[in-house]
């Protein structure tokens, strides 16, 4: 098992953990800050400069969606799948 596959498994486990915690807290009717986790909320909106620095409009819209609209667990799970596939393709 190579480093890319391990990274993908760690990202997938992190995404599953965040999703599980959000599901459990919503079942318990707890109101907490974990309900609307995005990349911008985790990084305290430090990604705003990167998003606004994009030269073309479609790249800015895509990064805006990734940073502000896509839930963190989906981002982590998707990155985990990409790393696992990358590790499977470029296996030694």
Strands, helices and their partners?
Blueprint: H1 3-27, H2 39-42, H3 48-52, H4 57-69, H5 72-89
Helix pairs in contact: 1-5
What is shown here, in short?
With 92 residues, the chain is an all-alpha fold. Helix content is 71%, strand content 0%.
How far apart the termini lie comes to 9 Å
**Oligomeric category:** single chain
Give the strand tally: 0
Number of domains: 2
Radius of gyration (Å): 15 Å
Order of helices and strands: HHHHH
Structure explained in plain terms:
- The chain has 92 residues and is mainly alpha-helical.
- It has helices at 3-27, 39-42, 48-52, 57-69, 72-89.
- Helix 1 (3-27) packs antiparallel against helix 5.
- The chain is 71% helix and 0% strand.
- The longest helix has 25 residues, at 3-27.
- The radius of gyration is 15 Å and the shape is flat.
- The mean pLDDT is 86.
- The protein has 2 domains: 1-32 and 72-92; 37-70, no CATH class.
- The protein is built from 5 helices and no strands.
What attributes characterize this protein structure?
92 residues, 2 domains, mainly alpha
């Amino acid at each position: 098992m190579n480093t890319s596959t391990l990274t993908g498994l760690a990202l997938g486990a992190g995404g599953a953990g965040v999703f599980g915690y959000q599901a459990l807290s919503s079942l318990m009717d707890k109101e907490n800050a974990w309900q609307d986790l995005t990349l911008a909320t985790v990084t305290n909106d430090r990604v705003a400069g990167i998003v606004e620095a994009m030269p073309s409009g479609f790249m800015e819209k895509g990064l805006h969606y990734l940073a502000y609209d896509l839930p963190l667990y989906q981002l982590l799970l998707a990155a985990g799948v990409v790393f696992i596939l990358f590790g499977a393709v470029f296996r030694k």
